[in-house]
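Q: I'm a student working through a structural biology exercise. My instructor gave each of us a protein and asked us to get a predicted structure, then write a short paragraph describing it. Mine is galacturonan 1,4-alpha-galacturonidase. I'm not confident about reading structure output yet, so if you can add a plain explanation after the tokens, that would really help. Here is the sequence I was given:
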Amino acid sequence: MEAFDTCGKSGNIIFPEYEQFNISATVHITATDVQIEWRGEWLMSDNLSYWRNNSYPIAFQNHRAGIVFSGSGIRIKGYGTGGVNGNGDTWYSAEAGETQEGRPMPFVLWNVSDVSVEDFYINQSPLWALNIMNGTDLTFRNIVCSATSSEAPSGYNWVQNTDGFDTMDVRNVTLTNFVYQGGDDCIAIKPRSYDVTINNVTCNGGNGVAIGSVGQYEEDNSVDNVIIDTVKIVSSNVRARFTAYIKTWMGALVPQDSYESAGEPRGGGWGNVTNVVFSKFDIDGASVAPLIDQNSGDNGSYSGTSKMQL
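A: Happy to help. First, here is the predicted structure for galacturonan 1,4-alpha-galacturonidase. I'll explain a few features afterward.
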């Protein structure tokens, strides 16, 4: 984008309030020491074919990214009016509850350090809303992630895979004051996440707070020093399923048929999940109490083989 070409290094960028900026193509911004007053809204187009065929590939679970930020010293302030609208309702209706390959993540931080994001939203995400992949020293405050379907029949979840806040390959991450509405993980702490502190979370519907999944790939999947404190989980138009849970994969390669495994067998990852604290959870209407599941990806033959130590 032209604004970042001109001011993306030691500059100040303003997206004015009440203005909408149409995003019709993939965006990968690399910035350094930049202040972003993100008062307006970025709206991703509803051209599903374009996004399926042109979004940036992500090897982990065969996903895609539409908008990516990289760099260091990035300060984003949304002032409560700024954020990203992923136009997800178009995807939810088109796929009618069966998530297909090619949905783009609308806000990915990839290869970043020294980043802060505050008073910001990611609404109607086609896939995971706020995803961090390879980041250090990151601070988030007053973040809202929401995914709702206008056409889903009563009792049906058409907003699967719309995680709220996900981390992988991160160190020293803080999230304070987070609100989620959707049909999947409110928060998912994925492989190689270290020193993560999360406080004051509201999860409306979905799968609650997860460590994982881990162990899906044959590599170190460790997670250490994670504190998740003061969480309210409430059933909404999409029922709350889980509360707090840890999910690890089989210890052997197991054939998979989901697009998320790209047709390849998965499992066999190793590592340790240590020093994890879930505290002060207020639960209203969730289906499942706190849970540890070490059989993700099982086809009935490999139960109990996980190499992940908890």
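A: Here are two points you could use in your paragraph. The two ends are 44 Å apart (CA to CA). The mean pLDDT is 96. It's a good idea to check both against the output above yourself.
Q: Great, thank you!
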